[in-house]
Design goal:
eleven-stranded mixed beta sheet, about 550 residues, Amidase signature (AS) enzymes, about 40% helix
């Protein structure tokens, strides 16, 4: 078997050139030829020529695996909170438990934290290179929540460890009293009628919801750009972007505005920004976290999940939001949410799988840092096993085709606003529009094959390790604020390791492992079997114990220290 996932060599477009190209694609005389060329360069024409006899998989529901894990140890929510409250935080980032301890000790209050967070966000956006982590903040609503949390804590009646802890939510997820714009200029003109399930569960736990985070327009790219609300920059270097499309959520956590935020992941959009900003990002098994109340961008790829400063924060919020929801049929067939041994650093019995050509297809510094962490995990008792995963390029094309086709289908209802979308979004959606029913069916056959390939790999290992991204945070091009840019080569470098997780529905986590010579974070990804999020958290927790982390230059301490 040969490794077939190659880097792409596509033109980079920006500014006026990008706008002219988008206009040309929109014009009848040129659109056909240009679209055909894009289909060829993107590998879709080649995928059409392949013959697969597999039955298509339209939803990656791991039903057999769910049934096999019906007896998994269920989550003890109270025990998890008690455990975290007792544990010291060795990381430089304040955790949710640090906020809870400060509140209980009386050294600060949710009201004081809310005021500090609002001031910090304003300060970061006043920089010559503004961070722009948030799209919208309702100050009155934030302070109202903070007063209620302060009163509950003074009365000794906190709703949970999360009571009064600041949390941010991606602008793809319904949250009262905000509209859900999904990064566009025309959606979300009226406030959401009710919270999404994940937001409702956080609110029931007392979380202090700061507002709606900025994102790439309709979540269609991981390059940090939004022409309506601005480029989301990276707290580690404001000349760089924070990935995407949950880049506002990642920037908010990395800058210290909150210890955890909610993102959405259709092609790496939780894991990529987490990786570029030195955070932990978890995409759970498809169907584990309810999608009710999330914008219907991609029905078979989308996952909501946490981005946090520490593994403990991610585990806590995952435990809060995961589980069945009667309003989301895809969530009803899961086994019990389990965090069995998630924070046990003894890795004896854990088999790590590495497909060497894939693992090494990244910047040398990233590979070096990931290799170093593998060695430390082995010292903790894990064993390394060589694996092979065929047809990774076919998976890349199938993932891109599926998500673009589903996005194009869902955006068809907004055809009247086509001209209000940014040029790069229109170019991407044009590819989705050009996909035929036969193309989509072919991609779902590849999905079936991908699930089988990974199932065979997991016969000899428990966790598959790769870098999280092939490059560290890219520099924002000059003079692109108004017109944006389209760099599909870098997009593929960012998505190389993330895309199979969405196609197969498998859980995956990104976590920091070091820094490049510019001080930008490097990160690793761990993929697991369906419903085994606890094992991924365990590996990430073990890595966290040996990685020396540091706060970014743009960081705000909201707690007394």
């Amino acid at each position: 078997m040969s490794y077939n996932l190659a880097s792409l060599d596509l033109p980079t477009l920006r500014g006026r050139t990008l706008r002219m190209f988008a206009a040309a694609i929109d014009s009848r005389p040129l659109s056909g030829a240009l679209t055909s060329q894009l289909l060829k360069q993107g590998g879709i024409i080649d995928l059409r020529a392949k013959t697969f006899d597999d039955a298509p998989t339209f939803y990656p529901l791991a039903l057999a695996e769910a049934e096999a894990q019906r007896d998994a140890p269920p989550l003890d929510w109270q025990a998890l909170q008690d455990r975290l409250l007792r544990r010291d935080n060795r990381e430089p980032f304040p955790s949710a438990a640090d906020y809870a301890r400060a509140y209980r000790a009386g050294t600060t209050t949710p009201e004081a934290v809310a005021e500090a967070a609002l001031a910090a966000i304003a300060d970061a956006d006043d920089d010559p290179r503004p961070l722009r982590a948030f799209r919208a903040i309702d100050r009155a609503d934030v302070l109202k929540q903070a007063r209620a949390a302060t009163e509950r804590l003074r009365a000794g009646r906190p709703l949970s460890l999360l009571d009064g802890v600041p949390v941010a939510v991606k602008d793809e997820v319904d949250q009262v009293p905000y509209g859900t714009t999904v990064g566009t200029s025309f959606l979300g003109q009226t406030p959401a009628a009710q919270d999404a399930t994940v937001v409702a569960r956080l609110r029931a736990a007392g979380a202090l919801l700061l507002g709606k985070t900025n994102m790439h327009e309709i979540g269609i790219n991981p390059d940090g750009f939004n022409e309506h609300y601005g480029i989301i920059r990276n707290p580690y270097n404001l000349q760089c972007h924070a990935g995407g499309s949950s880049n506002g959520s990642a920037a908010a956590v990395a800058a210290g505005f909150c210890p955890v935020a909610i993102g959405a992941d259709g092609g790496g959009s939780i894991r990529i920004p987490a990786a570029l900003t030195g955070l932990v990002g978890l995409k759970a098994t498809f169907g584990r976290v309810s999608e009710r109340g999330a914008a219907p961008l991609t029905w078979s790829m989308g996952h909501l999940g946490p981005i946090g400063a520490t593994v403990s924060d991610v585990a806590l919020v995952y435990a809060c939001i995961a589980g069945p929801d009667p309003d989301d049929p895809n969530s009803l067939h899961q086994p019990p949410v389990s965090l069995n041994q998630w924070d046990v650093a003894d890795l004896r019995g854990v088999r790590l799988g590495i497909y060497a050509p894939w693992f090494e297809h990244a910047d040398p510094q990233i590979v070096e840092d990931c290799r170093a962490i593998v060695e430390r995990l082995v010292e903790m008792g894990a064993t390394v096993h060589e694996i092979e995963i065929p047809e990774l390029d076919e998976m890349r094309v199938a993932q891109a085709l599926t998500i673009l086709a589903e996005m194009a289908a869902n955006m068809a209802a907004h055809e009247a606003h086509w001209g209000e979308l940014s040029p790069s979004t229109r170019v991407n959606l044009t590819l989705g529009r050009a996909a035929t029913a036969a193309d989509y069916l072919q991609a779902q056959r590849v999905r079936t094959r991908a699930i089988d390939h990974f199932r065979r790999a997991f016969a000899v290992c428990d966790v598959i390790l790769t870098p999280a991204t092939a490059v560290t945070a890219p520099v924002v091009p000059d003079n692109c604020e108004a017109d944006g840019w389209s760099d599909l080569n870098t997009v593929t470098e960012l998505m190389r390791f993330a895309m199979p997780g969405n196609l197969t529905g498998l859980p995956a986590i990104a976590f920091p492992v070091g820094y490049d010579p510019r001080g930008l974070p490097t990160a690793m990804q761990a993929m697991g079997r369906p419903w085994e999020e606890h094992l991924l958290l365990r590996v990430a927790y073990a890595a966290e114990l040996v990685v020396a982390r540091r706060c970014p230059p743009t960081f705000y301490h909201l707690l007394p220290h």
